[in-house]
Structure formats: C-alpha cells, structure tokens
Amino acid sequence: MQELKIGIIKEGKVPVDRRVPVTPTQVETLLNTYDNVTVHCQRSDIRCFEDSEYQQAGAILVDDVSDCDIILGVKEVPINMLADGKTHFFFSHTIKKQEYNRSLLQTILEKQIRLVDWECLTNLQHQRLIAFGRYAGIVGAYNGIMTYGKRYNLFHLRPANECFDMEDMQKEYSKVKLPAIKIALTGGGRVSKGAMEVLTGMKIRKVSPVEFLTEYFNEPVYTQLNTRDYNQRIGGGSFSRDEFYQNPANYESSFGQYAKKADVLIAGAFWDPKAPVLFTKEDANRSEFKIRVIADITCDIEGSIPSTIRPSTIDDPVYDYNPSDNKEESAFADEGNITVMAVDNLPCELPRNASEDFGKEFLKHILPNLVGEDKDRIIERATICQNGKLMPDYAYLQDFVDGH
Description:
29% of the residues lie in helices and 17% in strands. The protein is built from 14 helices and 18 strands. It has helices at residues 24-33, 51-57, 102-110, 133-151, 166-173, 190-201, 209-214, 227-230, 241-246, 256-259, 281-285, 351-371, 378-381, 398-401; strands at residues 4-8, 37-42, 60-62, 70-72, 87-90, 114-117, 182-186, 205-206, 221-225, 231-233, 251-253, 264-267, 293-296, 318-322, 327-329, 338-341, 383-386, 389-390. Strands 3-2-1-4-5-6-17-18 form an 8-stranded mixed beta sheet. The chain is globular.
C-alpha cells in the first residue's frame, strides 16, 4: 500500500481560530488503524491542543507541511501558505461566490491545487457529513441567554470562550434562573439541535408552537419552529415543503404571530435568499413586536433578519439595533432597541469540544474514503477544483473566477 502523508496546517487566518480538524487522541487512533498513513503537524502556538500532545500521539512535528499529500485545516488558508499541486481540505467560503475569497480561488486554480471543501462533503441524501453546526447552536443559545441576563441586569455569565470546555460552561449556566419568558427557536438541523441541548440543560420547558401562541406560562418556555410554522402560502392553501423549497416566492412570512409573544429569538434556520424574510424593518417597528433579544446564529447579513446589520465578534459579541432609525447603537443603549448577538464564528468559543466532534466525523465518514476507495464519490463531489480546472459541479463559479 502506498504511503499517505497527512499534514495538519497551522491556522493562519486572522482573527485567530484555535480549532483543529483532528485532535491528538484522534491522530493516535488514525495511526493505529492505518499502517500506511503518517501525520505531520505544523508547529503552532495558537491551537487548543499543544504541539507536545500531537507529538506524544505519534505525529511528526514540522515547520512546513507543503510536502504532504493531503493538508487539513479549518478556516481559509492564507494565499502564501497554499501548497502547489497538493490536496487541501478547508472551509473555503467560495461556493456562494463570496467576493472576499475570489483571489483565494483564483490562486488555488493557478497553483493546480485540489480543493476539497468541508461544507460540500455529503452523503447520497445530500446531508452534510461533517460540520461544526452543533457547537454553533450550543454557543449561540448560551450567548443568547447570557445577553438576556445582561440586558435586564438579572445575572452574569462568563463568556463561553472563557470556559475551559463544555462541562465548565454547563456548570456556568446551571446557576441561571430565568423569569417566565418565551423563547422562539427556528430551524430543525444541527444548529437548532445544539441550541436545544442548552435550553433543555437549563431546564427550560419545550412547548408546541400552538401552546406558545395561545397559553400563558408561569415558567420560562421555548418552542422550536420549522419552516411550515412561520411561512404561509400567498393567497391561501396548505403548506407544501417541496413547493416551498422549489418555489419559495409562492410563500410569505407568518412569523409576526410569534414575534408578538416571544421575548427572545434564537435564529438557527438555513435561509435561501429567494425565500421570504423572517420579518421586516417595518415589522420590528410595530408596537406589538415583542422580541428584544435576538441571537442570530445564522448571521446572514442583509438576510432574513433585518436587525443583523453586521457580524459581531467573540471579544465584542453584542450590539443594539434601533428599529425606528434602522441603525446600530451601543449595546443596551435604549429599552426600545433590539439587542443582537451575531457572532459569526461561534464554535471557536468551545474549540476543544468542537474539534473533538469534527474529528470524530472525519475519522468515521471521510478518512476511509481518502485512504481506500471513495465510495459514493463523497470526496469527488466535494472537490471544487483540481489540476487548474473547476470540477463540473462547480463550473458555475467560472464567471466569478474570471472577475465578472
């Protein structure tokens, strides 16, 4: 069997990201499982795991991984760190023609790099096989509750990134006692399931959307809203999920009924720009619009939530949105404002746990297809380009690459 050299690159993107694609323990498992694989770890002073831990696990510490066959990273690799003609795995943020990464994709093509995007690794049912979404949901829900406590001066929680790991964070939120508020959570995927872990862990009762709208509770409650709960067919008729995803323009938002009842919104639903927005600036200005804290995990700028006017940062996670003037103000500036938490790299706040989950999925779903046969074309379908050319599934990016 041919030897396969796998490299773990030092994350070079700023702001610093402390996550890793595989942990030291997982490196040890990998080396014990595959005789023909070696792991080379680029020295780094920013990872959530020490270089010495990788060395003890059997990885070879190096200053440069450009001679490895496969190079694993998390965030976009800086252009000066790209290895000519090699296979790079990372979140490239290019498949939606993100303007800020145009030169990155152009350089990858010039250098004849094979780019495999983590985001595109799916099974035959088009479900993602590897993601950080669960931890985005966990940290997003925690930050939402932390923001509510701060806004109303009810309790103080340590930021998630100041907790050692998730167990430490769970101890932190277990001391919270919320008043009888109502929390609306959108979405049904990894993100919202992660958020539910925190809400359930805080012993917040889950109720149905109908109960949420019609009943009074003397305890904090939350409801999970799926697409059908807050979108309705224009002109009447029953909701069809297939039709909604194929022709979202046939639908309009009915979220207003929940906005009249909810105190907090945790937004975890994927949004298609062709679909209706959750609510409008005009909706946010109405006196019956009750929501005053929004944890926008999706963080779509100019997307489905008009109060998310920019991403926030781990160091400065919260700002206020003034709905009457449609502008940003300092956090907790005015009772009439909506307080927004829109950190766009939430899993970075719990890097150890997020990395462990990610690496586990890599070992289970991705690595066997790298070392052996690429069953179901999992790697092939996630390959954006190789040998200087876009793959057929990503040929739509050509005009973007050409600068149009």
